[in-house]
Specification:
Length: about 800
């Protein structure tokens, strides 16, 4: 039917008939057939010199272009129609040029002269067509050629032309920044216009000039009183049917003026003082019941917070954002919390007044609002409200979406470490988080909690009882199970005594404790790391109990043939303690000493540069000091052959996530490493590190380590020094084609605020041809809702020359 219908159509079928035929096509194939036949007819008519339906054919071709089909063969027809003397053809020609041409097309240069002639045309509508086309697709060359004409039209007496000329000047300034000075005098004079369209275009032009030129910014700061008068006229003016939108007089112009005032008042006290009264008037007189009024109020708030405004005015701005939080529109609530997040560091007390409303937003159904409410709630935590805020955040953690649990747990840990009112409260809070969302916490949570427990000796009995009960209740939360196993191994004797003043006493037998550890060892939910904790705890209990040592020896011997190499090594070493070194087992398995933090104010296991320097200095002094012969003291490292090099503890006792530097002492004892083939530990040389990226609070460092003559392992370490978490952090790397690259999985995909944790990712390179090594790294992350992507070039690698690559 479509085929017969289209055959009956003449080559000059009207546009409406062609549209009807295309829409009636039942398949994509039929639609393509209709369009191909019509394009062929249009192309044939374009070749005719005497064609009376040129505008008609070009209009149909533009519709075909809007459907996504190629229409480039109509570009020259657009050029010819622009040069026509008939307005109907000129109008379609300019429309076609805006749709089919851009500054990269050579055909666009052919219309420069036509546009210049039409800018001087006596008909304002023809001038308007030329201005719109230049503002839409004018190239840098066209802008330079036609800028004087645009400046002349800015001084025209016709408001219709001045409005469009101002917007065309904005495009020219964006294309060629140097031409901005040409429009400064004209833009200054246009501020006295009464026509709102001209004022709107002028304010946009001035904004563009101020953002791109410091000199223009200083000159236009003198116009602040004029802008204030224009704004006051809009605020106090009565009803105007031409400009009224929902009871607000020309809100579009008001928003543009407020944005310009924000730029002019930034870091300038004189300009800020001149607009303080106006901003207060707008903030108090604008109706907030309509979306239009809220838009004006939001721009007012942003202006107040960005300039050097008075303290009372800033409080008023925060209160407006607080009212936004009560709005039924989720978009308004979202932008309110986004703005409060930016100022909570500088106006903390003002934001605190709206803490209850912000916490209520945690119950919102919208995921974006809930995420913003969580970020803002964590930022509001202080020493005075830590208990009440943690109560609300823990309730939220128990019911929050899975994608927010890691962020919520991380924020609770950071807040607890900074503002904990007591150590018992701190431990209870962390255990509550581990019980609720243990699978979503960061890797460093376990060693941090172990450090906290170790340093609170008065709470050892309370903690081991509480963790034991938690272990019996649920073993699915692996971090909680790891900490519980560590505490039972260290303080199992306190658990067996059953005397605890801090909590209800529970009588626990040796068999009960060993049964609980065996359940962990045999559970399919336990990870290899968790089993390592449980096996070490079981071994430590051999010196803390008296009746079940043979059972412990039996449990340990079973894992001597475990398929997991780490667990097997532990079991072999523990069996050696039972058999060959039983006389020193009690000393080896004694309690861990108190773990000291590296420096004041550090959290989450972070090591400062000063601490690293002090440690290196101490190692130098230790090397310079003559070694003293060991006495009768039995040390764990006596088993490792009396090495005098500073070593890290191996997995013999090792809680996998916790390491503590020790010094090897010479001993007459045997060498446990003989069991493993006479291995000798060698001192580790720290790889040199360089910073390759530092922007927006994100720092990326690079270190290299030689693996072979052609192999190199690069470690990329990223940290975040800002006050807000960074999510979706990814690294991509590219190297020359002859170099083989393999990127390992990163340690995490987010960067907590204030350097709470770092992200590490290994890059393995194989350079068999020994080419000059270069690497390009792309850094992508999301910060405060904005997606940021940067690329850095690495031309030199630390230690590369030493590696011989």
């Amino acid at each position: 039917m479509i085929r017969h219908f289209y055959r009956a159509m003449s080559p000059s079928v009207p546009l409406q008939e062609m549209i009807r035929a295309i829409r009636s096509a039942r398949t994509q194939c039929e639609e393509r057939g209709v369009i191909q036949r019509e394009c062929a007819a249009i192309r044939a008519q374009f070749r005719q010199t005497d064609n009376g339906g040129r505008s008609h054919n070009l209009a149909k071709l533009l519709y075909v272009h809007m459907l996504g089909y190629p229409a480039h063969f109509g570009q020259m027809e657009c050029v010819r129609m622009i040069g026509s003397s008939r307005y109907s053809e000129k109008r379609v020609g300019y429309l076609g040029a805006m749709m089919l041409l851009d500054e990269k097309q050579d055909a666009s240069l052919l219309i420069t002269n036509s546009i210049k002639n039409d800018l001087s045309h006596s008909n304002q509508h023809v001038q308007s067509l030329a201005l719109c086309t230049l503002a839409c697709m004018g190239s840098a060359e066209m802008s330079r050629d036609l800028a004087p004409e645009i400046n002349r039209l800015l001084r025209s007496s016709n408001s219709y032309i001045k409005k469009k000329a101002a917007l065309c000047a904005v495009h020219i300034v964006r294309k060629v920044q140097d031409l901005g000075e040409l429009f400064v005098p004209s833009a200054h004079s246009l501020l006295s216009e009464k026509n709102h369209g001209v004022l709107h275009g002028t304010v946009v032009l001035i904004t563009e000039l101020c953002e791109r030129s410091p000199g223009a910014l200083e000159r236009f700061r003198k116009t602040v009183p004029d802008l204030v008068q224009i704004m006051k006229g809009l605020v106090i003016s009565g009803y105007s049917p031409d400009h009224d939108v929902a009871g607000v007089s020309d809100p579009f112009l008001q928003v543009r003026i407020l944005r310009l005032l924000r730029i002019l008042g930034r870091n300038n006290e004189a300009a800020s003082d001149a607009m303080n009264d106006l901003l207060a008037q707008v903030a108090t007189n604008t109706d907030s019941t309509k979306t239009v009024g809220n838009a004006v109020l939001y721009e007012t708030v942003l202006t107040v917070l960005d300039i050097k405004s008075e303290s009372g005015l800033r409080v008023l701005a925060v209160n407006i954002l607080g009212r936004f939080l009560l709005n039924n529109d989720r978009n308004i609530r979202y932008i309110a919390m986004t703005s409060l997040q930016k100022i909570v560091a500088t106006d903390h007390n003002a934001v605190q007044r709206h803490r209850g409303t912000i916490v209520d937003c945690l119950k919102d159904q919208d995921a974006s609002v809930k995420r913003r409410a969580l970020e803002l709630s964590l930022a509001l935590v202080s020493a005075s409200n830590i208990r009440s805020m943690m109560k609300e955040l823990l309730i939220f953690l128990s019911s929050c979406p899975p994608e927010l649990r890691a962020q919520a747990a991380s924020g609770i840990f950071n807040a607890g470490e900074r503002y904990a009112p007591s150590q018992r409260w701190h431990i209870d809070t962390i255990l509550h988080v581990l019980t609720t969302a243990g699978g979503d916490v960061r890797d460093e949570t376990v060693p941090n909690l172990i450090q906290l427990i170790t340093n609170t000796s008065e709470l050892h009995c309370y903690t081991v009882h509480k963790l034991y009960r938690a272990l019996l209740t649920d073993i699915s939360q692996q971090p909680l199970v790891q900490v519980a196993c560590w505490c039972i191994g260290e303080y199992g004797d306190l658990l067996l005594k059953g005397e605890c003043q801090e909590t209800e006493a529970v009588q626990v037998t040796e068999d009960d404790v060993l049964d609980a550890l065996e359940i962990v060892l045999q559970s399919h939910m336990s990870t290899p790391t968790t089993r390592g904790f449980a096996l070490t705890a079981t071994m430590k209990l051999s010196t803390r109990i008296t009746d079940n040592v043979d059972r412990i020896r039996s449990i340990v011997s079973i894992y001597g043939s475990c398929i997991d190499v780490e667990l097997q090594q532990r079991a072999v070493e523990y069996n050696a303690l039972f058999k060959k070194y039983d006389h020193m087992r009690a000393a080896v398995l004694e309690r861990m000493p108190v773990i000291q933090k590296n420096s004041l104010g550090q959290t989450n296991g972070e090591v400062s540069e000063e601490t690293i320097k002090e440690t290196q200095l101490a190692k130098v002094r230790q090397d310079e000091t003559p070694q003293q012969p060991a006495g009768q003291v039995c040390d764990l490292l006596d088993l490792l052959g009396g090495s005098q090099e500073p070593l890290q503890p191996s997995s013999l006792l090792g809680d996998p996530a916790l390491t503590q530097p020790t010094t090897a002492l010479t001993s007459a004892g045997g060498d446990l490493l003989d069991l493993l083939g006479g291995l000798e530990p060698s001192p580790l040389t720290p790889a040199p590190t360089v910073t390759v990226y530092e922007k927006n609070g994100v720092t990326l460092t690079l270190s290299c380590e030689q693996q072979s003559d052609s192999g190199l392992t690069i470690t990329l370490t990223a940290s975040n020094s800002t006050d807000s978490d960074i999510s979706n952090f990814t690294l991509q790397a590219a190297v020359p084609k002859s170099v083989q690259l393999q990127m390992r999985s990163p340690s995490r995909d987010s960067l907590p605020a204030r350097g709470a944790a770092k992200l590490t990712q290994l890059v393995v390179l194989n350079n068999p041809n020994k080419v000059n090594l270069k690497m390009r790294i792309r850094v992508s992350y999301t910060s405060q809702g904005s997606v940021i992507q940067d690329t850095v070039q690495v031309d030199s690698f630390p230690g590369l020359s030493a590696a011989g690559l």
